[in-house]
Amino acid sequence: PDDEIRDRAVARHTQLTKPVGSLGRLEELGAWVSACQGVCPPKPFERPRVVVFAGDHGIATQGVSAYPSEVTAQMVANFLAGGAAVNVLATAAGATVRVVDVAVAGETSPTVSKFKVRNGSGLIDREDALTAAETAAAVKAGRDIADEEIDGGADVLVAGDMGIGNTTPSAVLIAALTGSEPVAVVGRGTGIDDQGWMRKTAAIRDALRRARKVGADPVALLRTAGGADLAAMAGFLAQAAARRTPVVLDGVVVGAAAMVAEELAPGAREWWVAGHRSVEPAHAIVLDHLDLKPILDFGMRLGEGSGALTALPVLSAATRILAEMATFADAGIAGP
Amino acid sequence: PDDEIRDRAVARHTQLTKPVGSLGRLEELGAWVSACQGVCPPKPFERPRVVVFAGDHGIATQGVSAYPSEVTAQMVANFLAGGAAVNVLATAAGATVRVVDVAVAGETSPTVSKFKVRNGSGLIDREDALTAAETAAAVKAGRDIADEEIDGGADVLVAGDMGIGNTTPSAVLIAALTGSEPVAVVGRGTGIDDQGWMRKTAAIRDALRRARKVGADPVALLRTAGGADLAAMAGFLAQAAARRTPVVLDGVVVGAAAMVAEELAPGAREWWVAGHRSVEPAHAIVLDHLDLKPILDFGMRLGEGSGALTALPVLSAATRILAEMATFADAGIAGP
């Protein structure tokens, strides 16, 4: 983001017909959008776009989730039919939805499987999630998708996740990158019971043992303990930053991918805002690590980009304030 | 709100294609809207409406604000021209704006002065804000305006405030109703310096001495230490509740009026949700007293309904989730 433009946006805020600083965080967010766009006043968003990255995880067979892997493909169909939370929240926020099957276990519609890398990622407590070639293909898929969307006119992006078991590799990535212990990053995901929590903690512990050996290499980390969906999201987030496009981050899964993206492209986090703080304990670690302050703190834990989309209208409003409010001079009012 | 319908909405949430409880506070808000409407699923809002109550305060002549009273009428003109924060945020949230001059010091457009009670309310540190007749007229104006809007189809309401000096009587009302001390309720308002802060604290202290004598009578309190705008807002909020219409509350000024409205119509608060928590210290006291949890905590302090309007899209999204998401049965997915 352009610091000179940000300063100009901050200065413009003092000229708008309101007491200086009286819109608080809304002013900060508007100035950030202005800096991302490199123009002041900023342009209201015209094409917010959500990309949901769907993928399964072998670890789901180990009883770490309240749902079976079959639900991932069923939810992809639900996204395409428009019945999921992401569809409703995107429509409400003026965004459109794209679904990408990166590694769903099983067949999905050909409209979404162009970037498919494999059927489900590996059992990370004992084997690599991906081969080196698959990892590279998944990261590239994410980068290509970001390029396609930005070339298609998207002016603000959201990454969403769908994949039974995906909070387990996410927790492992977050622990590996922050030196956290399994119990600090394990959460209830879709809603597991105490037995499931113990199995999940053990799976994280075993996968983390493997992940720590490659913790300094983000691509190796994705290969060892991530998954194709996480790799694609990391590529997507890194490329959005390279293309100077603002992103609203979602919860713990996107957060794990964002932490890897920040390793791939240091400084990428400057192009992101945190939509919300989820209830997953590891998400607070992500926000702290990336130094991002959430817009909402709503106790959400769905994924799909749902938290980011709930917050998106707030970011849009912040942009419109800078773009559309009258100045003291316009309104003929004596300024402060 | 209808508790049986609320239970039905909570039950419906468990049937939607997402893990139980995974949308957190968004589920709570949707169930509340359903209960207010008395129907499940709830109807997405079609006519959100903001009414900005403008009024001046004699106390502004005592140096308690960073701006002179003339700014109130200038801002009313700005609202009518569409250049203020309330206009931009209302448009962004799909709401329309109505401006009402209840007690602006000076002339305003005839389109907004139909309910005008007087030119500025009294100097509350030494005299009553209003006569008994003016108080009754202002409360009735608020009630009539709520009726007009609801009869006109408004399905969610926001009250906004505009009036130089209005955080001073608001602080007095809040202190009188909660037994708080002046230093606990005084804030920086539009942005006063330390000298202004001391003058404001002294004004609150003197007005509070007068207000405490009538603290048990909400109408007398509005007369003694409130103002016509605050009285109208209290009437508006009480009547919206009587008409079973949900309201998104704004900051400290609307909050003060809401506390009085709850005294006028006990239980009215069940029909309100708090849009945000402002930086005014007295606003936290209001939220605590009314037992309301803010949607946003954004460091805002503008008034005009700005915080409520920034939060309104979140409430709208919560409503649409319940109304528009597919159920597990619809989507052919095995539920939890």
Overall description:
Two copies of one chain form a homodimer. Chain A has 336 residues and is α/β, with parallel strands linked by helices. Chain A has two domains: 3-43 and 320-331, Nicotinate-nucleotide-dimethylbenzimidazole phosphoribosyltransferase (CobT), small domain (5,6-Dimethylbenzimidazole Phosphoribosyltransferase, Chain: A, domain 1, Orthogonal Bundle); 48-313, 3-Layer(aba) Sandwich (Rossmann fold). Helix content of chain A is 51%, strand content 9%. Chain A has 14 helices and five strands. Chain A has helices spanning 3-15, 25-37, 70-81, 85-93, 132-151, 167-178, 182-185, 194-211, 218-225, 228-242, 252-264, 281-290, 306-324, 328-331, and strands spanning 48-55, 96-103, 156-162, 247-249, 272-274. Chain A has a five-stranded parallel β-sheet with strand order 2-1-3-4-5, sandwiched between helices. In chain A, helix 11 links the parallel strand 4 and strand 5. In chain A, helix 2 packs across helix 13 (306-324), helix 6 packs across helix 12 and helix 10 packs across helix 11 (252-264). The longest helix of chain A has 20 residues, at 132-151. Chain A starts with a helix and ends in a 5-residue tail after the last helix. The model of chain A has no long low-confidence stretch (mean pLDDT 97).
